[in-house]
Protein backbone atom coordinates (compact mmCIF):
# COMPACT_ATOMS: atom_id res chain seq x y z
CA UNK A 1 0.00 0.00 0.00
CA UNK A 2 1.38 3.40 -0.96
CA UNK A 3 1.41 6.27 1.49
CA UNK A 4 -1.43 7.99 -0.42
CA UNK A 5 -3.61 4.86 -0.04
CA UNK A 6 -2.94 4.78 3.71
CA UNK A 7 -3.90 8.44 4.03
CA UNK A 8 -6.84 9.05 6.30
CA UNK A 9 -9.94 10.81 5.14
CA UNK A 10 -9.61 14.58 5.58
CA UNK A 11 -12.07 16.63 7.59
CA UNK A 12 -13.15 18.31 4.35
CA UNK A 13 -13.85 14.92 2.73
CA UNK A 14 -15.87 13.85 5.79
CA UNK A 15 -17.83 17.11 5.72
CA UNK A 16 -18.68 16.79 2.01
CA UNK A 17 -19.60 13.12 2.44
CA UNK A 18 -21.90 13.90 5.36
CA UNK A 19 -23.36 16.92 3.61
CA UNK A 20 -24.29 14.90 0.53
CA UNK A 21 -25.75 12.09 2.67
CA UNK A 22 -27.93 14.82 4.20
CA UNK A 23 -28.83 16.17 0.74
CA UNK A 24 -29.99 12.68 -0.27
CA UNK A 25 -32.03 12.41 2.94
CA UNK A 26 -33.69 15.80 2.46
CA UNK A 27 -34.49 15.31 -1.23
CA UNK A 28 -35.90 11.86 -0.41
CA UNK A 29 -38.72 13.60 1.45
CA UNK A 30 -39.90 15.46 -1.62
CA UNK A 31 -42.23 12.71 -2.75
CA UNK A 32 -45.48 12.08 -4.55
CA UNK A 33 -47.13 8.78 -3.66
CA UNK A 34 -48.35 6.56 -6.48
CA UNK A 35 -50.63 3.49 -6.37
CA UNK A 36 -47.67 1.17 -7.04
CA UNK A 37 -46.27 2.02 -3.60
CA UNK A 38 -43.12 3.47 -5.19
CA UNK A 39 -43.23 7.26 -4.81
CA UNK A 40 -41.87 9.81 -7.26
CA UNK A 41 -38.98 11.43 -5.39
CA UNK A 42 -35.85 13.47 -5.94
CA UNK A 43 -33.67 10.66 -4.54
CA UNK A 44 -32.23 9.70 -7.92
CA UNK A 45 -31.28 13.33 -8.57
CA UNK A 46 -29.63 13.58 -5.14
CA UNK A 47 -27.74 10.30 -5.50
CA UNK A 48 -26.49 11.22 -8.97
CA UNK A 49 -25.51 14.68 -7.71
CA UNK A 50 -23.50 13.14 -4.87
CA UNK A 51 -21.66 10.79 -7.21
CA UNK A 52 -21.01 13.34 -9.93
CA UNK A 53 -19.91 16.01 -7.47
CA UNK A 54 -17.78 13.97 -5.10
CA UNK A 55 -16.42 11.25 -7.36
CA UNK A 56 -16.60 7.50 -6.91
CA UNK A 57 -15.05 7.15 -3.46
CA UNK A 58 -16.79 9.97 -1.60
CA UNK A 59 -20.01 9.89 -3.65
CA UNK A 60 -20.36 6.17 -3.03
CA UNK A 61 -19.54 6.68 0.62
CA UNK A 62 -22.23 9.37 0.95
CA UNK A 63 -24.83 6.91 -0.41
CA UNK A 64 -23.57 4.20 1.97
CA UNK A 65 -23.83 6.63 4.91
CA UNK A 66 -27.40 7.50 3.85
CA UNK A 67 -28.37 3.81 3.70
CA UNK A 68 -26.71 2.99 7.02
CA UNK A 69 -28.34 5.93 8.79
CA UNK A 70 -31.71 4.77 7.48
CA UNK A 71 -30.96 1.15 8.39
CA UNK A 72 -30.53 2.01 12.06
CA UNK A 73 -33.94 3.65 12.11
CA UNK A 74 -33.37 7.33 11.36
CA UNK A 75 -36.32 8.33 9.13
CA UNK A 76 -34.30 9.41 6.08
CA UNK A 77 -36.00 7.27 3.45
CA UNK A 78 -38.94 8.54 1.42
CA UNK A 79 -42.00 9.29 3.51
CA UNK A 80 -39.87 9.73 6.64
CA UNK A 81 -39.30 5.99 6.91
CA UNK A 82 -36.31 4.24 8.37
CA UNK A 83 -35.22 0.88 9.69
CA UNK A 84 -34.40 -2.49 8.22
CA UNK A 85 -38.00 -2.93 7.12
CA UNK A 86 -37.51 -0.22 4.54
CA UNK A 87 -34.46 -2.00 3.16
CA UNK A 88 -36.17 -5.38 3.03
CA UNK A 89 -39.56 -4.13 1.84
CA UNK A 90 -40.92 -3.70 -1.68
CA UNK A 91 -38.92 -0.53 -2.44
CA UNK A 92 -35.72 -1.55 -0.66
CA UNK A 93 -34.02 -2.67 -3.86
CA UNK A 94 -34.02 0.90 -5.08
CA UNK A 95 -32.32 2.03 -1.87
CA UNK A 96 -29.59 -0.62 -2.26
CA UNK A 97 -29.29 0.38 -5.90
CA UNK A 98 -28.53 3.97 -4.92
CA UNK A 99 -25.10 2.86 -3.73
CA UNK A 100 -24.25 1.38 -7.12
CA UNK A 101 -25.67 4.42 -8.87
CA UNK A 102 -23.58 6.84 -6.80
CA UNK A 103 -20.45 4.75 -7.41
CA UNK A 104 -21.01 4.69 -11.18
CA UNK A 105 -21.83 8.41 -11.38
CA UNK A 106 -18.67 9.07 -9.39
CA UNK A 107 -16.63 6.78 -11.62
CA UNK A 108 -17.96 8.79 -14.53
CA UNK A 109 -16.69 11.99 -12.96
CA UNK A 110 -13.36 10.36 -12.21
CA UNK A 111 -12.88 9.57 -15.93
CA UNK A 112 -12.74 13.30 -16.65
CA UNK A 113 -14.82 12.88 -19.82
CA UNK A 114 -18.44 13.96 -20.31
CA UNK A 115 -19.79 11.16 -22.51
CA UNK A 116 -18.47 8.30 -20.32
CA UNK A 117 -19.67 10.19 -17.23
CA UNK A 118 -23.22 10.45 -18.56
CA UNK A 119 -23.16 6.85 -19.83
CA UNK A 120 -21.99 5.55 -16.46
CA UNK A 121 -24.67 7.61 -14.70
CA UNK A 122 -27.35 6.12 -16.93
CA UNK A 123 -25.91 2.64 -16.36
CA UNK A 124 -26.06 3.27 -12.60
CA UNK A 125 -29.65 4.44 -12.90
CA UNK A 126 -30.63 1.33 -14.87
CA UNK A 127 -28.90 -0.96 -12.37
CA UNK A 128 -30.72 0.85 -9.56
CA UNK A 129 -34.02 0.22 -11.34
CA UNK A 130 -33.14 -3.43 -11.90
CA UNK A 131 -32.36 -3.85 -8.20
CA UNK A 132 -35.63 -2.15 -7.34
CA UNK A 133 -37.70 -4.23 -9.75
CA UNK A 134 -36.02 -7.47 -8.62
CA UNK A 135 -36.75 -6.87 -4.94
CA UNK A 136 -40.27 -5.66 -5.71
CA UNK A 137 -40.85 -8.88 -7.69
CA UNK A 138 -39.67 -11.08 -4.83
CA UNK A 139 -41.59 -9.22 -2.11
CA UNK A 140 -44.82 -8.89 -4.09
CA UNK A 141 -44.49 -12.43 -5.50
CA UNK A 142 -45.15 -11.27 -9.04
CA UNK A 143 -43.54 -11.42 -12.44
CA UNK A 144 -40.38 -9.48 -13.16
CA UNK A 145 -41.68 -7.91 -16.38
CA UNK A 146 -44.89 -6.75 -14.71
CA UNK A 147 -42.82 -5.30 -11.85
CA UNK A 148 -40.63 -3.40 -14.33
CA UNK A 149 -43.74 -2.02 -16.02
CA UNK A 150 -45.21 -0.98 -12.66
CA UNK A 151 -42.24 0.37 -10.69
CA UNK A 152 -39.66 1.34 -13.33
CA UNK A 153 -41.16 2.43 -16.64
CA UNK A 154 -43.32 5.27 -15.24
CA UNK A 155 -40.24 6.77 -13.54
CA UNK A 156 -37.56 6.41 -16.19
CA UNK A 157 -38.08 9.69 -18.05
CA UNK A 158 -37.98 11.67 -14.79
CA UNK A 159 -34.92 9.73 -13.67
CA UNK A 160 -33.03 10.22 -16.96
CA UNK A 161 -33.71 13.96 -16.67
CA UNK A 162 -32.60 13.84 -13.02
CA UNK A 163 -29.26 12.26 -13.98
CA UNK A 164 -28.70 14.88 -16.69
CA UNK A 165 -29.56 17.77 -14.37
CA UNK A 166 -27.37 16.33 -11.61
CA UNK A 167 -24.46 16.06 -14.04
CA UNK A 168 -24.91 19.70 -15.10
CA UNK A 169 -25.20 20.97 -11.54
CA UNK A 170 -22.17 18.91 -10.48
CA UNK A 171 -20.12 20.57 -13.25
CA UNK A 172 -21.03 23.95 -11.79
CA UNK A 173 -20.36 22.87 -8.19
CA UNK A 174 -17.00 21.29 -9.05
CA UNK A 175 -15.89 24.38 -10.95
CA UNK A 176 -16.75 26.74 -8.08
CA UNK A 177 -15.92 24.69 -4.99
CA UNK A 178 -12.67 22.82 -4.41
CA UNK A 179 -14.34 19.57 -3.48
CA UNK A 180 -11.46 17.22 -4.10
CA UNK A 181 -7.78 17.83 -4.58
CA UNK A 182 -7.88 16.41 -8.07
CA UNK A 183 -11.22 17.90 -9.11
CA UNK A 184 -11.51 18.15 -12.86
CA UNK A 185 -13.28 21.27 -14.00
CA UNK A 186 -14.31 19.69 -17.33
CA UNK A 187 -16.32 16.96 -15.60
What does this structure look like?
- Helices cover 72% and strands 2% of the residues.
- With 187 residues, it is mostly helical.
- Strand 1 (31-32) and strand 2 form a beta hairpin.
- The chain is globular, with a radius of gyration of 16 Å.
- The model has no long low-confidence stretch (mean pLDDT 91).
**Proportion of helical residues:** over 70%
Number of strands: 2
Order of helices and strands: HHEEHHHHHH
N- to C-terminal distance: 28 Å
Separate helix tally: 8
Q: Provide the low-confidence segments as ranges.
A: none
Relative strand content: under 5%
What's the rounded overall pLDDT mean?
91
Strand order, largest beta sheet: 1-2
Shape annotation: globular
Task: Summarize the main sheet.
Answer: 2 strands, antiparallel
From the helix content, strand content and strand pairing, which structural class follows?
mainly alpha
Q: Cα-atom Rg, whole angstroms? A: 16 Å
Amino acid sequence: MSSSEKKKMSAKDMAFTGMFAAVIAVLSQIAISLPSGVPVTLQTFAVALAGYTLGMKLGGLSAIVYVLIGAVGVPVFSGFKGGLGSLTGPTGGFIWGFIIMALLCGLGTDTGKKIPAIALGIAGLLICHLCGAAQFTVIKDGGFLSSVMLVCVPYLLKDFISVGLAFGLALILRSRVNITKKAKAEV
